[in-house]
Amino acid sequence: MKSWIAFWSILKKDIQNYYLKPPNISWGIIFPLSWTLMQFVRSGSLNIIEFLPGLMSMSVLFGTTSMLAVTITFERKGRSFERLLLAPISLNTMVLAKITGAILFGIFNAFVPAVVAAFFVDLAGVNWGVVLLAVSLIAVTSTLLGLLIAVSAKEVFEAQTFSNFFRFPMLFLCGLFIPILDLPVFFRPLSYALPLTYGTDILNGAIAQTNILSPLLCIPILLTFAVFLFMICRYNINRKWIL
Amino acid sequence: MDIVNVTNLKKIYGDFAAVNGVDFSIRPGEIFGFLGPNGAGKTSTINMMIGLSRPTDGTIIINGIDVRKQTKKAQSIMGIVPDESNLYDEMDGFDNLCFCASLYGMKKEEREPKAKRLLEQFHLTEAGKRPFKAYSKGMRRKLTIAAGIIHSPQILFLDEPTTGIDVESARQIRELIVDLKNQGTTVFITTHYIEDAERICDRIAFIVSGKIVAMGSVPELMESISHGYRIQLAAEENIVKYAADLQAHFEGCNVNTGQNNSLILVSLKRIPLLPVIQYFDERRISVYEAKELRPTLEDVFVKVTGIEAAKLKKEKEKGGMSK
Ligand SMILES: Nc1ncnc2c1ncn2[C@@H]1O[C@H](COP(=O)(O)OP(=O)(O)OP(=O)(O)O)[C@@H](O)[C@H]1O
Ligand SMILES: [Mg+2]
Q: Which residues of A touch B140 (CB under 8 A)?
């Protein structure tokens, strides 16, 4: 019960202090929006359905990683983060509270391109339940990736540089805009080592029926990634945050 | 029964010992002070006690809880005021206090009235509506202290609470700490202001280069260097030449020469003044001043730490040469 009070409080504070701040809301809307329009201008309305999964994945990836890296490194630098470390709640509860905000923000970001696309194309054939599941799994895994970066970085700019180092290659490797089967063969093992590939593939299936793997395979793989990443983060946090 | 028991506590960074085998205990309801110069290891010690940093060695027991093993359980009875005011810049004073209270599981119905009361008590009611980043240094300090006590901790850790703020605010903070003690809170405070320690601490430990060099209540510490009673005598003329004779005259008394041709009588027992003055009167010398010399806490500090600092410096030089 006491842990829940703390959990909600941390989540609420993050949402109010960071996620609902005008620059972040506009970033969350403008970034996916401009990509959507760019793709629209380039390809005409017919192909929007094919681009939508990639756009949604990208919005989640950028939303979660950048926000988490900033909110955590920022608070660590201002030392208010120590308050969370000193609170009588388990490290797991605290970390979950911190990442839940980013996960929700990522999910919100994902639906910006979907809403925009709905004005141009008929999305009646989309399986929204599966989309929500896929988006959530992408949000969880990218948030944990962001957390891993945040744990390693000392400065806000360092966190941003690190996350770009991961994010941009992922745009090309994970089948967001270039189908994985079109990538040079030697890149493919790398693609399959990244969680985003599986999330995007589920989205491809649910929106455009262009998936190459079965969602029944992708979902457990993503869950495994999530657990695995959480454990690495836990280990690193324990080692790096309590000196 | 002690509420805090620290034994052989060590913190080693690389090959540098920031805290080098520290032992002390704190009694329930007392104000215990850690007094030491910059870099002595005060913050390092506090950080280990509150579970923010891992000791290299040693044990810390707080209220029967082993802090190294049950950190979270121990943290639930602690209040912590760090050396920097580390609240949330964007949030106002009231929200900051409520947020801190919620981390300790306080419900909305409990924390909101408590936050209001603390703001009143600290004369911050108006400021409570402004964001923390708009606060002055003294206000930041006060709000940080309020945030540290909102959940009514059994033991409060204060790292240099009066550093860098004006005299009046410092006085208010000292009063507040004494109030907390009177309500039964145990307080661990670090400072490098001797006067602060002398005014409010029940017991003090001097820490230099990661080691405790002296510990006790203020009178005990004074006793440790004064070795009995000392009286300084001054007269119109030079009385130094009477030193040996005076010593022979008054049994159990040591006579040393002081500044400006004065004499200092040292004895384990109290020295009655009349015979001394009569002694000089018989020799037609009028003594115009006879005063008891009492050491200040500063004297104790200089004496105790001065010796240690020199010794440690030598050790460091030795260590440097062997490399
Ligand atoms: N993370 C660290 N890595 C290396 N050395 C450190 C670290 N933290 C502290 N030290 C060193 O340990 C020593 C003790 O530092 P500490 O902060 O405990 O001193 P302090 O008594 O609190 O001093 P001050 O009065 O300046 O606050 C210092 O020499 C400091 O440089
Ligand atoms: Mg310090």
A: none
Touching check for B105 and chain A: CB below 8 Å? Answer: yes
pTM over 0.80: yes
Q: Is the separation of the CB atoms in B20 and B41 below 8 Å?
A: yes
Rg (CA), chain A: 18
Residues 6+ apart with CB under 8 A from B274: none
Q: What is the DSSP string of B53-65?
A: S--SEEEEEETTE
Here the tokens at position A150 are 């945040």
Burial of A33 (0-12, 13-18, 19+ CB in 10 A): middle
Prediction ipTM score: 0.88
Domains present along chain B, CATH in parentheses: 4-77+153-223 (3.40.50.300), 227-293 (3.30.70)
Q: Beta B186-191 vs B155-159: how paired, if at all?
A: parallel
CB distance B36 to ligand 1 below 6 Å: yes
Residue A75 confidence (pLDDT) above 70: yes
Nearest CA to ligand 1 atom 17: B43
CA distance A162 to A152: 9
DSSP classification of residue A60: H
Contact B95, B103 (CB under 8 A): no
Q: Which residue of B has its CA nearest to A89?
A: B72
A200 Cβ contact list (under 8 Å, min separation 6): A53, A54, A57, A138, A174, A175, A176
B293 secondary structure, DSSP code? -
Pairing of strands B203-208, B211-216: antiparallel
**How far is CA B108 from each of CA A80, B111, B270, rounded to the nearest angstrom?**
21, 5, 62
Strand order, beta sheet including B31-35:
B78-81, B155-159, B186-191, B31-35, B203-208, B211-216
With a 6 Å cutoff on the Cβ, whether B101 touches ligand 1 is: no
Query: For B85-116, what is each residue's pLDDT tens digit?
Result: 889 999 999 999 999 999 999 999 999 999 99
Determine the residue of B43, B53, B158 to mutate for testing ligand 1's pocket, defined as the one with the most ligand atoms within 8 A of the Cβ atom: B43
pLDDT, tens digit, 9 for 90 and up, residues B290-311: 888 877 788 788 888 774 444 4
- B52 with A13: Cβ contact below 8 A: no
How many CB atoms are closer than 10 A to CB A173? 20
